[in-house]
Amino acid sequence: MLRYARNDNKPIEINKLLEMNQNTLYVDTANLSELTKSFKKFFLNDTSESITTYRKLTQKVAGYISEQISSQKQAYSGKSPQDLITQIAEFEIFPRQGMALETLLERTRDLVINHNISVYHPNCLAHLHCPTFIASLTAEMIISAFNQSMDSWDQAPAATMIEQAFCDELCKVYGFDNQADATFTGGGTMSNFMGLLLARDHYSQLNYNWNIQQKGLPPEASKFRILCAEFAHFTVAQSASILGLGENAVVKIKTNDFEEEAAALEDAIISLRAEGLIPIAYVTTAGTTDFGTVGQIGNLAEVAHDHGLWFHVDAAFGGALIFSEKHKYKLNGIHQADSVTVDFHKLFYQPISCGAFIVKNKKSFEYIRLHADYLNPESNEEFGILDLVYKSIQTTRRFDALKPFLALQHIGTEKFGEMIDYTIDLAAKVSDLIEIDPNFELATRTQINAVVFRYIPDENLLDSEIDDLNNEIKTKLLLSGKAIIGQTVVKGRAFLKFTLLNPMTEISSVIELMELIKEMGKR
Questions:
Q1: Helices 402-411 and 134-146 meet at what angle, rounded to 10?
Q2: pTM above 0.90?
Q3: What is the spatial distance between Cα 427 and Cα 501, in angstroms, rounded to a whole number?
Q4: What sign does the CA torsion over 268, 269, 274, 280 have?
Q5: Nearest-CA neighbor of 184 among 397, 457, 380, 471?
Q6: How far is Cα 506 from Cα 510, in angstroms, rounded to an integer?
Q7: What is the pLDDT of residues 70-88, one digit of tens each?
Q8: Axis crossing angle, helix 507-522 with helix 463-480, rounded to the nearest 10
Q9: Peptide bond into 339 cis (omega under 30)
Q10: DSSP 254
Q11: Most buried by CB count within 10 Å: which residue of 128, 140, 244, 407?
Q12: Which CATH class is domain 414-522?
């Protein structure tokens, strides 16, 4: 029998442990203990020194952040890209010797905190980039400190059960029955990808009895087509590429004034089949990035299902409308979807990243189910142990469900719905103001929060010159730090965009920004 004998008096190098006789291994426990002690100061652990350091530094960082937010009068400091490059160059990226945390935090404050984009500022209007709930920020502290991974139950017991309970209720909120299920993702890109992955595999299994997970793409795959409106998110084409179908497999359907139409979808399906091609899925967008438009989901679902297509709803932007008594009707029919994308780091006001992917039939997750002996052995299911990795294409995942869970527990869905209503009403009022101002041109009436417009100068200019002028206004606002607004292209022309997600934004602030844009345009 092998015995271990302590050898605290005679130090032995770790890589030269001496076997003193056939049955005894002498281990230098004293030396190993000293090494362990030298490492502990870098980690959060049960020593008083570690706990004290953690409390002290989290309070210091919270102080830095609070001071910056309370004193930041502009959306951005105005630092140019070159200024930031110069400042970063002062750091040795991979230093051989470290520095004191207090010193490091001071330098980080000067670089990162002082030159952030303030998502809380009323002039931060460029993207679907939201302010965050305080409750969700406390969740981030818990998530990062305990560092649980959501792939297996033995890494995150309570977290696993909370996420699953949240997913079950999320499915019910969108009108699905108990056959539905959901998983958390990093956001819309991952969720849309999963929707099209399951659509591809489902079609192949149902129509050709072909298991893509085992065999790869079927011979017919080169004819597969994914349909969407012309303004659908770029991740539809990106997903088709990654899935081995190619971007050319995506067929974009023209719209009538940015509205998706069921008749146009049916015509496209019939036309593709006449060419010998195989439509397998349709992606509708509930809240387009540029215009916030939502198609007639129920009508589109009916056409897609009549023709045997998987119906995916990209509600990354508009999914939050389900909690608005005033605007939830815009999502009518979403329960008919085979899969749905929802982003919590947009109109749900959660810290990045936080998204969800819903499937109407939980059996669809079988297309990606895998077992690893070290992680989620099949025997776990016999004991009622839930390992969430089976329904995700990610292995290691953060406990992001805690963020919306805590936020909604704190705020309640009634108050949350009021916030959504306010921002949509704000966007409508801003659209009204732009529409009657001769120095602005409104691209289209907004359905949700996005207002797309452009500045029109008093003097006669060519369209290309007006394009250049609008692009210059956007860039100069950013580099001055005064405002961060969006830009896009509508029918070949340059337009500006306000994305009015922030429920703390007052209309007076937007009016001031509109006047600033006109002033810059005239200069």
A1: 150
A2: yes
A3: 9
A4: positive
A5: 397
A6: 7
A7: 999 999 999 999 999 999 9
A8: 120
A9: no
A10: P
A11: 407
A12: alpha beta
Measure the CA angle with vertex 451, ends 447 and 456; round to 5°: 140
Distance CA 504, CA 118 (A): 13
Residue with tokens 């502990």: 40
Nearest Cα residue to 243 out of 224, 269, 265: 224
- The structure tokens 């362990």 sit at 36
Among 508, 494, 507, 511, residue whose Cα is nearest residue 452: 494
In whole numbers, what is the pLDDT of the chain averaged over residues?
A: 93
What SS3 class is residue 143?
helix
CATH level 2 (architecture), domain 148-411: 3-Layer(aba) Sandwich (3.40)
Residue 7, both tokens: 């050898």
How many other C-beta atoms lie within 10 A of the C-beta of residue 405?
19
Taking each helix axis from N to C end, the angle separating 235-242 and 188-208, rounded to the nearest 10 degrees, works out to 50
| Nearest-angstrom CA–CA distance, 3 and 19 | 11
CA R_g for the chain: 27
Q: Please report the sign of the dihedral spanned by the C-alpha atoms of residue 113, residue 119, residue 124, residue 129.
A: positive
Residue 283's DSSP bridge partners are 228, 312
Mean pLDDT of 417-437: 97
CA distance 44 to 54: 7
What are the tokens at 287? 């809240």
CA–CA gap between residue 413 and residue 64 (Å, rounded): 32
In DSSP notation, 331-382 reads: GTTGGG-SEEEEESSSTT---SS-EEEEESSGGGGGGT----TTT--THHHH
What single letter denotes the amino acid at residue 481? G
**How confident is the model at residue 2, as a pLDDT?**
44
Residue 102 to residues 37, 61, 87, Cα–Cα distance (Å): 21, 10, 19
Indicate the pLDDT class of residue 12, thresholds 50, 70 and 90: very low
Both tokens assigned to 48: 């008083």
| Mean predicted confidence (pLDDT) in 147-167 | 96
Is pLDDT of 9 > 60? no
Q: Where in the chain are the domains?
A: 3-40, 148-411, 414-522
Assign 407 to helix, strand or coil. helix
Q: What is the dihedral of CA 268, 274, 275, 278, to 10 degrees?
A: 70
Rounded Cα gap, residues 466 and 460, in angstroms: 9
Backbone angles phi, psi at 506, to 5 degrees: -95, 150
For tokens 């936020």, what's the residue?
Answer: 407
CA distances from 459 to 272, 455, 464, 494, 519 (A): 48, 12, 14, 18, 14
Q: What are the distances in angstroms from CA 158 to CA 71, 379, 498?
A: 39, 20, 40
pLDDT-based confidence at residue 454 (cuts at 50, 70, 90):
very high
Residue tagged 């997600």 (tokens): 501
Measured between alpha carbons, how far is 267 from 269 in angstroms, rounded to an integer? 6
Check whether 6 has a pLDDT greater than 70: no
The CA distance from 465 to 234, in Å, is 28
Q: Which residue has the tokens 């049955």?
A: 23
